[in-house]
C-alpha cells in the first residue's frame, strides 16, 4: 500500500486553499495513473487545489476483496477519504463506473459536487450486454468480453501519452468485471432505476452540485430523467472518446478549476 500512503501524505502536506478538494475515482480495470495528465494541467491552472487520486478496491495498489458490491466500495473509499483528513466536503470526480460510485457516495456522505465523466447511471442496453455475457465472463474466454468493451471506448483515437496510459494503466481480471457489475447481474433494471432515483433525490436534497460531461449528445429521455431529479444538473457534451480525462485533460482541468 505504499502508493496509497504517499497519496495521503501528499494531501496532508499541501497548503490548503479556499477551494474544495478534488477526489478522483478512475474507471473499471484502470488505476489512479489515469489522472496524471489532469493533475499536471491542474498544477498549472489551479495550483492551490488539493487532489486525492484513489485506486478503487482491487485496482492498482489497493487490496483485492472478495466482493465489490457498490455499497461496500463506497464504504472503503469513505474510510480512505476520512484517513486523508480532508478539511471540507470534496468534489468527487468519477470516470465511468467511478462516476456511479461517486454518485452513490454523494448520496450517503457530504460532498460539494459530483463530476460524472461519461457515465449513464441506468443500465439500459449496456445492462443487456453484460447480462448476456455473464456465462462468458465466468469461463476461460472472459477477456474477449472486456476486449469488446474496450473496442467501443475510442482508445484507438487517442494519441501519445493518453493512449499509452489507456493501454498500460490497466489490469483487467474476471473478479473485477463480475464484482463491479454485480449490481447489473443481480438486480433488475427497475430495481437499479429506483436505487439511482433515491440517490439523486438525496443529492438534490443536500444541495450537492452535479455535472455530467458526456462524449455524445445524450438520449432526450435520459437527459429529461436526470434533470427532472436534479434540476440544477449541468450537462456538457465534450465530443470524443470514453476517456475525456485523457483526451481533454486541459479542458477538464479548466472546468474543474472554476468549481469551488
UniProtKB/TrEMBL annotation:
Source lineage: Bacteria, Bacillati, Actinomycetota, Actinomycetes, Micromonosporales
The positions making up the signal sequence are none
What domain of life is recorded for the organism?
Answer: Bacteria
In this protein, which residues make up the domain named AB hydrolase-1? Answer: 22-254
Matches recorded under PANTHER family: HYDROLASE, PUTATIVE (AFU_ORTHOLOGUE AFUA_2G14860)-RELATED (PTHR43798:SF33), MONOACYLGLYCEROL LIPASE (PTHR43798)
GO MF annotation list: catalytic activity
Give the organism, scientific name: Actinoplanes italicus
| Record-given protein name | Pimeloyl-ACP methyl ester carboxylesterase
Question: GO CC terms on record?
Answer: membrane
